[in-house]
Amino acid sequence: MASLAFLKHRPWPLPVAVAPRLNKLGPIEEENTPYYSPSHFYPAYIGEILNGRYQVTAKIGYGSSSTVWLARDLMQWRWLRDKYVALKINTSTRHSRDVKTELDTLQLLCKSNPRHKGCPYVRHLLDSFELNYESRKHLILVFEPLREPLWIYRRRFIGDAIPSDVLKIMLQMILQGLDYLHAECHIIHTDLKPDNIMVKIEDLSILDHAAKDEYKNPLPQKACSDGRTIYLSRNNYGLPRKTTGVIQITDFDLSVPGDRIHSGCIQAEIYRAPEVILDCGYSYSADIWNLGVMLWDILEGRKLFRDIDPVRVHEYDELNHFAHIIALLGPPPREILEKGRRTSQFYNSGEFKGPKIGAEFNFETSLSQIKGDDKRMFISFVKRMIKWRPEERSTPRELLEDPWLSFEAE
């Protein structure tokens, strides 16, 4: 292979452009995440070559346990255009069992039936490797770069909400992807939210432009006293250049096998299913509840349970959340309360401890973006997902047959 090296893309020289400097005192990007410690993050820098193959060109995201970077794949043949990948560099503090579970899940996705219609709508691993830095190990996962999460994509539309006709197309992709995860891979995602459903890049030249612009006109950077640099993320590629909307389900670091009933806390608070709140044990159908509740984010541009949204009211209130579920669905079935390990936190001698939510909160009043038959059919559709009893919720394959998905509103 060494004899063919001259046929591959060459690394770019280290950038010489001087980036504007940010205030050293104010935290930015990953410094704002809970329990941040600089020693746990790998100090990647623009121009660095990782694993002898991937040259870092721009930072494109971050989280509490990772940073994400756009990189050139230097194994690409020279007569082909630059190939870009996304590198998720995990912190050294992620428990070895957690990163192994994520890697196992991603490898399972690669081995499962590629002919399934939902396979293209799930993000797949391209490569993985480990970096050792100051006696700490960092797992790096390599993926296809994506454009943006749904919460950014929806802002491309009037009113920060994806229109019903566009949503129906995207939802069919999401359901195909979930069917692939549940029926083929036997995986429960456990953390569906607009952050973890991403839109694909519609024009690969966008990546080349982002990389070269960072090289020549770098975004402001923060130079830290320990010698590392904190970069700003280039994660907004502007309005789509042409038709897009192809999605992929991403982020499997919290996924679990679906071959048994699980207990414990999963899901973002506002999307949490009743069986998770009460700790009755959950399975695939927790993803279905999660998806049903999340549809308000992308159709309405706001949360279904907005009055308990921690971003809006500053603190999550479980009792208030459960009260809103009761207002929407009526009292919970007795067998669910009897199974719940946490039922006593919500009920005392059969009496609900939380507030009583008025009848004005219901499916009908929570929707403003759609009207008439489109609204009526949508409500019937989500009622197949938002149900007390997990076993009564429709599967992704069943939901794909729902008439609302093919209904054309006038």
From TrEMBL:
Catalytic reactions on record: L-seryl-[protein] + ATP = O-phospho-L-seryl-[protein] + ADP + H(+); L-threonyl-[protein] + ATP = O-phospho-L-threonyl-[protein] + ADP + H(+)
List of residues binding ATP: K88
Record Gene3D superfamilies: Phosphorylase Kinase, domain 1, Transferase(Phosphotransferase) domain 1
Superkingdom classification of source: Eukaryota
Domain Protein kinase positions: 54-405
GO biological process, one term: regulation of mRNA processing
Database matches in InterPro entries: Kinase-like_dom_sf, Prot_kinase_dom, Protein_kinase_ATP_BS, Ser/Thr_kinase_AS, SRPK
Keyword vocabulary terms for this entry: ATP-binding, Kinase, Nucleotide-binding, Serine/threonine-protein kinase, Transferase
One Gene Ontology molecular-function label: protein serine/threonine kinase activity
EC category name: transferase
EC number(s) on file: 2.7.11.1
Family under the similarity heading: Belongs to the protein kinase superfamily.
Protein name per the record: non-specific serine/threonine protein kinase
Organism: Aspergillus tanneri
